[in-house]
Every structure is written in structure tokens, then in C-alpha cells.
Design goal:
Elements (H helix, E strand, L loop, with lengths): L3 E5 L4 E2 L2 E2 L1 H13 L4 E3 L12 H15 L6 E3 L5 H13 L4 E5 L8 H12 L6 E5 L1 H4 L5 H8 L4 E6 L5 H10 L4 E4 L5 H7 L3 E4 L6 H13 L2 H17 L7 H9 L16 H13 L5
Parallel strand pairs: 1-4, 1-10, 5-6, 6-7, 7-8, 8-9, 9-10
Antiparallel strand pairs: 2-3
Helix pairs in contact: 1-2, 3-4, 4-6, 6-7, 9-10, 11-12
């Protein structure tokens, strides 16, 4: 259902407030450059520091501006089930094509609690739900058996896998017989996961190299590994540069250098130091993104 190069959108700010004009421009930019979908209000969109009102407004703007040209998968996760249900319901009401739900973080529920959390949310909406497995961020894993159980009771269509390996993807695809698809949640692992059957990537680097990233995913999906891997190696320095600091600090810094958006994240995140900025600019220059 959701596949290809899907950009994990930043939330652009101006003077500490959401820059609605810039957000609309970024969405148009993705449509123009072949991005296959966008995810607002995820980690890359700094959802932890958005108020509920800001969060909902970003989703509304994204849906309005996308205008059906590309799918919108709204980030709606929370460690509070009621809050996640509210955000997911809002996303459905304003016309989002799907919702991305991270595993509950910090309170670290067991698998029975994780199942109950997601199952409760799915009762509130009929839009497709993408589960987001990232133990490095949450402290818990949505185990493959839990994914299997959820697929039987709700509208869970995919998992964004940011586990940092191939085993999780392989086990989910094998256990669900393809009923639940996989989207890579880590740019550098995308070719390996797609070789196992993943159908695309929710990408950070697509914010700055959308056209090339979309081409890479298209080649990998069609089985043209030679062309896909060639583009992967061209993008790899950028992918690695996006890990120079906590996401989304590097990608916002890069977008600032490219004149695409204000580079400042919202506290408690802060801009990269001068040394890292110089290193990042060198990578962007080598990649032809800045002069």
C-alpha cells in the first residue's frame, strides 16, 4: 500500500513558530522530485516538542498541500494511548492516508501492553496504520509475534523497521507471509532490507536528495540492482552525514546550507557545532548540493 521513497519531513520553524509557507514549499518540492509519500510529525519532524495544536496543524497543512498527489502518513505515536488515539483520529479526520505509530517509549510496556496499545488505537480509525519499531529510541521492540497478532485484529499494513539489521525484517515478512509490508527506517540499511522484500524506505536523506533517492528505490524495487546500488553508493556519504548528530539536527543544518529551510531545531536540540558544520558542508559540496 505504502511503498517507494517516503520522506520523513522536517518541521520548518521561523522565529520559533511553524513556518507554514516553507512547509508547503517543501511538500511541493517532494512532489516535483518524485518522492512517493511524506511523513509529517515524526521524529524527523520534531514531534516531541510540538504542542498538540502545532502537531495537528502540521498534519492539516501537509494533507492540504499534498492534495492527493502523494500519500501522507501522519506521525501520531505517543507513549500515552489516549493521546496517540486522539492524534490518529485527527489524522484520519483531516484526510491523511495513513498513520505512523511508534512503540510506547519510556514507560516500556511488555508485549501484551504493546498489543493492547495499538489494538485500542486501531478501534478508533479505519485508515491504514504503519507500526514503527525503533528500540534505540523507545527502549522496547514490537516483537514479530506481536505484529502477527496485530495484523489479525486491525488495519496494520506495514512496519517501519529501524532495528539496525536484517533479522527483524526477515522474521516479520516470513511470519506474516507478506500481509504486513516492511519499510526501511534506516537509510543505510535500505538495499539489504529491500533484498529481503521491503518495499521502500521512510527516509531522512530524501529531504535533501529526493530525486536521486526516489530513483534508487525505484531501481532496487524493479530488480535493477546494478543501477540501484550505484546510486546507493553515491548517496551513502550523505546518509552517513545525517548521523553526525541527533536526528534531525544534521538534515536541518544541511537544508539551511542548501537554502531550503531555517537550520535551527527546537530546544532541547541545538545546532551542530562549527567543526561538524564544516564537515557536513564538505560532504554536501562533494555531493554537488552546495557550491
Amino acid at each position: 500500500m505504502f511503498k517507494g521513497s517516503i520522506a520523513a519531513l522536517i518541521t520548518p520553524f521561523n522565529g520559533g513558530k511553524i513556518d507554514e509557507k516553507k512547509l508547503r514549499q517543501l511538500i511541493d518540492w517532494h512532489v516535483k522530485h518524485g518522492t512517493n509519500g511524506v511523513v509529517p510529525t515524526g521524529t524527523t519532524g520534531e514531534s516531541p516538542t510540538l504542542t498538540h495544536e502545532e502537531h495537528m496543524r502540521v498534519v492539516e497543512i501537509t494533507v492540504e498541500q499534498a492534495a492527493g498527489r502523494i500519500p501522507v502518513i501522519a506521525g501520531a505515536g505517543s507513549n500515552c494511548t489516549r493521546e496517540a488515539a486522539q492524534l490518529t483520529k485527527h489524522a484520519a479526520e483531516v484526510g491523511a492516508d495513513g498513520a505512523l505509530l511508534i512503540a510506547p517509549y519510556y514507560n516500556k510496556p511488555g508485549q501484551r501492553g504493546i498489543f493492547a496499545h495499538f489494538a485500542e488505537i486501531s478501534k478508533k480509525v479505519d485508515i491504514p496504520i504503519v507500526l514503527y519499531n525503533h528500540a534505540g529510541r523507545t527502549g522496547v521492540t514490537i516483537e514479530p509475534e506481536t505484529v502477527v497478532a496485530l495484523a489479525k485484529v486491525g488495519n496494520f499494513v506495514a512496519v517501519k523497521d529501524a532495528s539496525g539489521g536484517i533479522n527483524y525484517t526477515a522474521e516479520v515478512l516470513q511470519r506474516t507471509s507478506g500481509a504486513v509490508s516492511i519499510l526501511s527506517g534506516n537509510d543505510t540499511w535500505t538495499p539489504a532490507l529491500m533484498a529481503l522484500g521491503a518495499v521502500g524506505c521512510i527516509s531522512v536523506v530524501a529531504n535533501i536528495a529526493s530525486k536521486k533517492h526516489a530513483q534508487m528505490i525505484s531501481f532496487l524495487a524493479s530488480g535493477d540492482l546494478k543501477k540501484g546500488i550505484k546510486l546507493y553508493y553515491e548517496l551513502l556519504p550523505l546518509m552517513k552525514a545525517m548521523d553526525m548528530d541527533t536526528n534531525p539536527i544534521p538534515v536541518k543544518e544541511a537544508m539551511g546550507m542548501m537554502g531550503m529551510a531555517d537550520p535551527a531545531p527546537r530546544l532541547p536540540l541545538v545546532r551542530m557545532d562549527a567543526k561538524k558544520r564544516a564537515e557536513l558542508r564538505a560532504v554536501l559540496k562533494t555531493s554537488g548540493l552546495v557550491k
